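Q: Could you fold this chain for me?
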Amino acid sequence: MGDHVHVRLGQGLSVSEQGELIEHSRCRCGATWTKVFDADGEDPDRPGPS
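A: Sure. Below is the predicted structure, expressed as structure tokens.
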């Protein structure tokens, strides 16, 4: 019998009250993951000061 390999399937995105981006994923076996991207208050479309 082979080993199980988790395949992360994207389930959507949300935003926390603090402005953090939250990515939701799951595997077909039922395992779930949540990844949080910190909000740094900067506009991602504009470069920071040099």
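A (continued): The CA atoms of residues 9 and 26 lie 5 Å apart.
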